[in-house]
From TrEMBL:
This is Oxidoreductase. PROSITE patterns: FAD_FR. Keywords: 2Fe-2S, FAD, Flavoprotein, Iron, Iron-sulfur, Membrane, Metal-binding, Oxidoreductase, Transmembrane, Transmembrane helix. CDD domains: FNR_like_3. The chain crosses the membrane at residues 22-42, 48-71, 92-113, 133-155, 167-185, 197-217. The keyword DNA repair does not apply. Its cofactor is FAD. It is a multi-pass membrane protein. GO terms for cellular component: membrane. It comes from the Bacteria. Residues 222-322 form the FAD-binding FR-type domain. One of its GO terms (molecular function) is metal ion binding. It is found in: Membrane.
Length: 445
């Protein structure tokens, strides 16, 4: 049996998630107030539409910088809030940003067109030709419109992760174009030394966070640990486990329940980064991921050879024991969502009940390991099979399997539909929100 280091007990006092969320909200509120102050100090244009255009443009710039912070993958923030929720906030913030940018463009164009009587198209062309930075702003807006379209739910479900991720990278080009537009044409930006210093500091901090979280830290960790594949083990017809080792893995701050973005450095796969959860608790010597063939990237994992070098970004996610509030736990897994659940079972103290929901026995990946772990840790394991109706995880069914579920922490990981249904059942059973921890597969699959 794998030996893992002792973990802290249930969280006391203010929860880490609350601290991080409150810090983000307070930081945004302070910056929103600073932007409003600098806007007023710069003075108002005579045209109300231009005033609205400048104000929406400034808050769009603030939201754009905030977007960078949300997805900078800073470890302190990610461990407390989780990539899953940060990605959700990033998505909704992105749609608000899009509306502010559209409002900025419409107000500015109509504001300048009203005194001259030009139509909006002619006015846009005239501004692009005569005002430095406007053409770059138009290109940035078009790029953000494309990214917003592919991020909509109906489009996201139809795109491979690799395609969506590649298109999303154009956001950085849009950010660069928008920033140069603000420098060149932003009246408030140049209205005072204080305003100029503030905006440079804001953009510098946001871009610096991205550079640290998404470039420098991953490069440092991969140079330090030098991960390499040691074995490729088929778990079923469409599920495979990859075993890895490396240097100084005891210093890699990975925990059970977290995931990495894995890049296998072969000739045909080095450019693909796919998110997979750890399926075993890190022991300081090895790592293991287990993935289902859900796309071209995961289907090709069977072809990876031992000895292949791996570039891993992470660890990411707040689906860990850091957020425990109670001594005892319920782990609920659906399908391949069992991978982080299996890892958590290795690490969790106290009495644990595991509910594993699959369509049939043959779909129960890692079931033998779960059974052995449950025996070794005096945990209860329930394999739940059969059709989705009637719901085997409905409130009355959960209460029958775990009568004291409201007095336990509950970890849920599975397909979005199952996760949503279980969360609804937990609410009906009166499980307090701080005791519910879940992963929706929105990024880590």
């Amino acid at each position: 049996m794998t030996t893992v280091e002792a973990r802290p007990g249930p969280t006391r006092g203010i929860r880490p998630k609350v601290v991080a969320r409150t810090g983000l909200q307070a930081g945004f509120a302070v910056n929103a107030a600073i932007v409003a102050y600098l806007f007023v100090q710069a003075g108002f244009a005579s045209n109300a539409l231009i005033v609205l255009g400048r104000l929406t443009g400034l808050y769009a710039a603030l939201l754009m910088a905030f977007q960078l912070f949300l997805m900078a993958r800073l470890p302190w923030l990610d461990r407390r809030i989780g990539m899953d929720r940060l990605a959700g906030w990033h998505r909704w913030n992105g749609f608000l940003l899009l509306w502010l940018l559209l409002g900025h463009a419409v107000f500015i164009v109509f504001g300048y067109a009203r005194p001259t009587g030009r139509d909006p198209v002619d006015q846009t062309v005239e501004l692009a030709e005569t005002v430095e930075g406007v053409l770059r702003a138009v290109v940035a807006l078009l790029l953000i419109l494309v990214v917003g379209a592919v991020s909509a739910r109906f489009a996201r479900r139809r795109l491979a992760y690799e395609t969506w991720h590649f298109i999303h990278l154009y956001t950085y080009l849009a950010v660069a174009l928008a920033f140069t537009h603000q420098v060149a044409a932003g009246t408030t930006f140049t209205s005072s030394d204080l305003a100029t210093a503030y905006w440079y500091a804001l953009w510098g901090s946001a871009l610096g966070a991205v550079a640290v979280g998404r470039i420098l830290l991953p490069l440092w960790r991969n140079w330090r640990h030098k991960l390499v594949v040691t074995a490729v083990v088929p778990e079923s017809d469409n599920v495979v486990s990859i075993h890895l080792t490396g240097r100084d893995l005891d210093r890699l701050p990975a925990r059970a329940g977290q995931f990495f973005l894995w890049r296998f450095l072969t000739r045909d796969r080095w450019w693909q980064a796919n998110p997979y959860s750890l399926s075993a608790a890190p022991d300081g010597r090895t790592l293991r991921l287990t993935a289902k063939a859900a796309g071209a990237g995961s289907a090709a994992l069977r072809q990876v050879k031992p000895g292949t070098r791996v570039f891993a970004e992470g660890p990411y996610g707040a689906f860990t024991t850091l957020h425990r509030t109670r001594p005892d736990t319920v782990l609920i897994a659906g399908g391949v969502g069992v991978t982080p659940i299996r890892a958590l079972l290795e690490e969790l103290p106290g009495h644990t009940v595991v509910l594993y929901r699959v369509g049939s026995d043959k779909d129960a990946v890692l079931h033998r390991e779960l059974h052995e772990l449950a025996l070794a840790r005096s945990a209860e394991l329930h394999l739940i099979t059969g059709p989705i109706a009637p719901d085997p995880l409905a409130p009355h069914a959960l209460a029958g399997l775990v009568p004291d579920i409201a007095d336990r922490d509950v970890y849920v990981c599975g397909p979005p539909g199952m996760t949503t249904a279980v969360l609804r059942s937990l609410r009906e059973l009166g499980v307090p929100k701080p005791q519910i921890h879940f992963e929706r597969f929105s990024l880590a699959g």
